[in-house]
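Subject: Sanity check before I submit

Could someone independently write out the structure tokens for this chain? I want to compare against mine line by line before I put it in a report. The sequence has 374 residues.
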Amino acid sequence: MYSYYRKPSRSLEDLEPQTLTNLYQSGKLDASIAQPAVSPPSVTFNDQVILVQMDMTRMAIDAIVNAANKSLLGGGGIDGAIHSAAGPGLRNECLDLNGCETGEAKITSGHRLPAKHIIHTVGPIYYDYKDEGRDPAKLLKACYVNSLDVARRNGCSSVAFPCISTGIYGYPGDEAARVACKTVREYLEAQLEESLFGPEEEEEKEETADAEKEETADAEKECGEEKVATVEGSDAKEEVVEGAKGEEKPVEETPETPETPETPETPETPETKEEKPEDKAAGKEEEEKPKEKEAQPPFLCKIEKVIFCVFLDKDLATYEDTVPSFFPPADPSVEGAIDKLEREASEKPATASNNENTNINDTREANPSEKPGQ
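---
Independent answer below. Compare away.
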């Protein structure tokens, strides 16, 4: 028997008190001691993001994200914890996925986990990319974006992320937290714009773009045909002129007339042979592009909750210092620790001076004969 079954799971309702809005109001998350704000405050986004430190395998939500390796067959850290808790069925399902490249994401069922699905993504190895002169932040951002896309295409509205690549892959925790918060904020903003403008307008834009591409391709083909027609017309004119000249010449020079049509045939054949494969290749490329778009299933839902789950062996302070930069408190009445100390410090001198004045007045009242300066 697995000890996992005796561990209580936590539903999305149990995690609701850990939203950023509630953390700010309760004082557990202090924006005054964090980095300066980069994004504007928003109640909508603060209600959508949850920050918690716990065992991710206990979450009873739509999907949890696994920081996997390229084989998807298990490893250390959060990857090993998820595989051991989900059971051998997860490994068997991962065998059919044929691995995963860095920055990409693939989904499986949750098996023995309380979560419905597991989204596997492969983060970048930090120092390998640094040594090669490449930026690992681009691939780390792709991990979050592709994971959220996979979640939406599979009907998962709540997604929990671990600290991707911060284990044996060596990504610094503060830098990884910054990429995670920035990417999630940008994704939620883009999702909100989609809901405001609607998907129909985006489909119309894609259709118009495809129609414009087809029109340009047809126009190029028509231009090519016109060029060939003009060349043939010029050749025909030359034949007529040569024929007219041939009537004045003696009969012995007439055999030269059949040689003239042979000369234009030689340049026509390579031109037509060269244009046809190019046109075919261009047509194939245009046909393949919409096929790639159609291969991706549409979004079935929208992301309602994003959970930054700091595993038990990670430091929560990295997210506490970074989250307020991209998700600042929207309630102006929320007071941070530094703001509170500054306010108390500013109030102390005023109260002290008031107390001194009251004491002087009291002594004067007690000794009315005494005058100031005596």
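---
OP: Matches mine. For the report I'm noting this point. The mean pLDDT is 78.
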